[in-house]
Structure formats: C-alpha cells, structure tokens
Queue: 2 jobs
Job 1
Amino acid sequence: MKTVKSLLIAGALTFPVITITAPEAKADLMVCNNSAAKAYVAKAWYSKKGWVASGWTHVFPNECETILFGDMRYNSAYVYAANYEWKPWKFLQKKYRAARFCVTQSPFFMKNANGRCSTKMIQKQFYRFRSDRGYDYRLNLK
C-alpha cells in the first residue's frame, strides 16, 4: 500500500501544471442606433502624439457598431453623430464634457485634430464618453 501511495504521489508531481488566467478586461466603444434613419459617426481619441479624429462610421437603424477598440477605462473618447442632413444626433445618455474637433463631410483620418481646421474642414462639438467600469461602453442614439 505504501508503494502505491508513493507511485501516485510521484505520478501526480510529473503532470504539468495548467494555470488559467482571465483575459484582460477590455472596454470597446459601441454606438447603437435606435431610430429609423442611418447615423454617421465620427470619433476622437488621444494617442501618444496628440488628438486623432476619424469618421465616418455608418450605423444603420436598429444596429450597433463598435467604433473604437481597446481599453476605455483609462482613455476618454469623444463622439459626434449626425444624420444625412448634418444635423447633430441626440444621445440617450446624459451629455458629458464637450470638445471641438475638425471634420470633413467625406471620410477622414486626422492627427492633431483639436487644432485649427483647414479651409476644407469644419469644427463640430463632440461629446466625451468614458467607461469607468472596464466593460464595453454603449452609446444609444434615438
């Protein structure tokens, strides 16, 4: 019996140890369109070299689109949404701090987006959103 216990202990010690770690929490920024019209969404975020803005993500009626990927717990993002007539969209959430960023009506990607706009660009008021919980943040358009 003593030999069997020794063999079991020796055998157990030779099995590899498997550890399971939970994936790091992420907090992507998602926009959901709860209306009957298509929404056009631009976003701005801070990178290591300054503010970056880009647009336009089309969010179709009754659909959601992830517009920023990554950890939103420590980063603020600013969002602007408009309809096809360029009228600003209303967010169902309470509006937070606002900031102005440059945009164009055609698709764009701009570094130093909080500076002066070129003649082909216009400034729009974006609203700040941030996930303090570490989960995906969902903005709802009405």
Job 2
Amino acid sequence: MENIFFKHSELKSCGKNVIIGKTVRIRYPELVEIGENVIIDDFTYISTALKLHDNVHISSGCKIIGGKNAFVEMFEYSTLAPNVVLSAGSDDYISGIATPMVALAFKAKCIIGEIIIKKHCIVGAGSVVLPNIVFNEGSAVGALSLVNKSLESYKLYAGIPAKPIKNRNKSEILSLEKLLKNE
C-alpha cells in the first residue's frame, strides 16, 4: 500500500516485514531508520530523526516530534499506545515566539534533545514524553501520564508527572521474549 505523504524509498533505511499505514506522515524520511517487523499505524506524524529497532509497534495517532536536530530511538519490543506524544524538541514557553518558522529570529529558547525507549517499554495511550528522557529497559507508563524524568528499569509509572506505582515482572517479560525468538 503506497503512502500518500512520502515514498518508502526516501527512508534512510527500512527492514523486512514493515507495515506503514498509508496516512502516516514523515516530514524528514531521510532521517528515519526502521528495523524489521515494525508496524506504524495510520494517522501517526513523525517530524524528527527516528531509529526504530526490530519488533516495534507505534499505534495510531502518535506524534513523534522535535525537528531535524532532535532524536528518538525505540528498541526491540517497545510500544507506543494510541495518541502518544514524544516531544524530543520543545520551547521553554517563557521567551521568544514558539512558531517554528520565526523562532530563531525571535530568539526563542528551544529545548532540543532525545528520547530513548529501551527494550520492553510501553508508553500508555495519550501520554506525553518531554525531551531528554530515557525509558530504561522494561519501564512502562500508564495512560494519560506526563513523563518529565527518566524511568527506572522494570517499573510501572503513572500520573502527572509520572511516578512509580508498581514493579513489572522482569522474568516473565524475558521468558516471553525467549518464546518469541524460538518460534
């Protein structure tokens, strides 16, 4: 199925068994690397450098933003639920004008960084992740949360701002990965 916003050949790289919805918009496809067995559902918008490792799922309506100088990376078995916003670039909301076309001319204080989502991480529906955040392996955040600090491994977070509420079952998660690899 052909995408209506970009050509797959414009991507920096794209592995096998990749499904990209025809309404996914990628503003800078030359900055996007996609591994194998990846799904990016319709109505997703990507406007930053992005590296997706194997077995990643991005649900419908997600926004991965930050501009050309920001970076987002998602490792194996990580997932974004519907309508997540990963904002690897932002404005400080204190000075300047936030409109991208004039921000530099009016000296807005942009925050440009990266978001790293390691293996076995989940970002719940409607959550927002701010720049310079690391989801350490196995961390997860519940729906409608705001992530403004990096998350510890194999913990579940929720809230505004997100706070740890439970431990995740590391041995069960790793056992499931092992089963998947043996299929």
